[in-house]
Amino acid sequence: RRLSKRSTSISSTAQLRGEEHEEHDLSVPDFQENKASPTKSTVEFPSKTLPSSHTSSALEKPRNSPKDPDDFLSKLLSERERSKAEERKSLPGSGADSSEKSLKVSAPHRHSGAGREKKERSLRKTESRLSGHRKSPTSTGHREDQMKEVLELVDVEDEETTGEVNKIPDLSTLSLLQIVSKAIDISLAKELKNLLFGSSLCCFSEEWKIQSFTFNNIPQLKYGIVQKKGGPCGVLAAVQACVLQQLLFADSNRNKDPRCLQPSEAHRTKCLSSALADILWRAGGHERAIVALPSGRQQFTPTGKYKADGILETLILHSATRFEDLIVFLQQNIQQFEVGPCGCILLTVSVILSRSINLVRNDFDVLTNRLIGSHGYCTQELVNLLLTGKAVSNVFNNVIELDSGNGNITILKGITSRSDIGLLSLFEHYDVCQVGCYLKTPKFPIWLVCSESHFSVLFCLERDLLSDWRAGRRFDLYYYDGLANQDEEIRLTVDTTQVCPESKENDLIPPLEHCIRTRWQGAVIDWNGTEPIL
């Protein structure tokens, strides 16, 4: 009788404990069973493990003594107890099965921020409490499951932070693209400043520091890059010409509709990436390119005869030896050039290093030349470096040798092959220089215009303009100046079948017309209702 009462109390206690597990199995995993004594564990699993010898002998006694008058009642209670134990085993609230299943049920809640951190802290606390107790087989199993769960939480967090890490150049991405990166040092920074300004004590002007390759928002001029202040116009005009090359002639369609001059933001940004890649790859001899990007902190301590400007000291130099890697890397970091704030400086440094400082200096007619002149203006050497990949000092074809008469020969270096982008100069109109056909007749009908110490862009939508004489009889040229606060499209019609009447000395002729007539002599130019730029 005492045994039957005890069995009844045991089964009722187990039933209550099973109901408690049923109420809590859908919330935070409960590991409190591990802290129970072995006797309580026996109550939880009466059909599996019976560590207590006293309890096991007491339970076996009714089965082995048929002389007991309450044998029938004991068997009935034992069967009832076993059936309830089997029901509890099928429920998710008992022992190791309870913790395992409750973990599975609560797994979707791990992905919420605060709840996930709270559960992870509770798991760590539980682990520390468990480590102080005697390890039983069930507690060891719980600990293994717990460790697996912690590892899984860490993996989920890694996946969630991947998007944030991709905002900066990733080392794994660089190795995948075969990009080699290194920080700039003070000796290289001094050489750059000597090449740019003629002295390591000079710095970039404010006009350069605030200039990037930001596009125009006026619908008719969405292809255009806006220049904020005077100074880096040569760099901006060269990049503008290369962007137009990508925008107009990247595909096989030779003649374009004017609507192509209204690209989407994504398309014009893609054209900018391709244009920068072409400039750097050409300067690197079609073998390599270096992209200079700011790191946000100094890479060396300025000492000696060096004046810090807050830009060169922060640069990381990324070197690519495959054009495909260069394209992808520039697309990933194009915001540094388009939004800035110093994208113009980054490109200038990148094109110099892609060519190499020694080769740039050897391109000069005079070794003491520099790339940025007085008032922060670009020299012809810098413009030629961007257009042709070589920082030569002249715009005529090939090389001219000057004999001084005493046996010394001075070599003047010019353009050695037909350029993708051309150049027209007002200086040629005044017989100050001569522009060779390699620049006058480029591969694409796009020209930089050098007029009044300023660079702008002139281009045609017809690819055949330079190869078909019929296309060159009458055609339209579009003009864009990023510094002129231009608010409308400027389209000029050039007619070479007529001869422009000779102008009188008092006539005001736009300098742009003089530049155009250095290429199409005597042509009649119609501004199509736009007020001429004088």
TrEMBL record:
Annotated segments matching region Disordered: 1-146
Leading EC class: hydrolase
Basic and acidic residues biased stretches: 17-27, 60-90, 114-130
Biased composition (Polar residues): 1-15, 34-58
Domain Deubiquitinating enzyme MINDY-3/4 conserved: 193-529
Pfam families per the UniProt record, alphabetical: MINDY-3_4_CD
Enzyme Commission number, as recorded: 3.4.19.12
InterPro entries xrefs: MINDY-3/4_CD, MINY3/4
UniProt function note: Hydrolase that can remove 'Lys-48'-linked conjugated ubiquitin from proteins.
Family classification: Belongs to the MINDY deubiquitinase family. FAM188 subfamily.
Annotated protein name in UniProt: Ubiquitin carboxyl-terminal hydrolase MINDY
Organism: Pomatostomus ruficeps (Chestnut-crowned babbler)
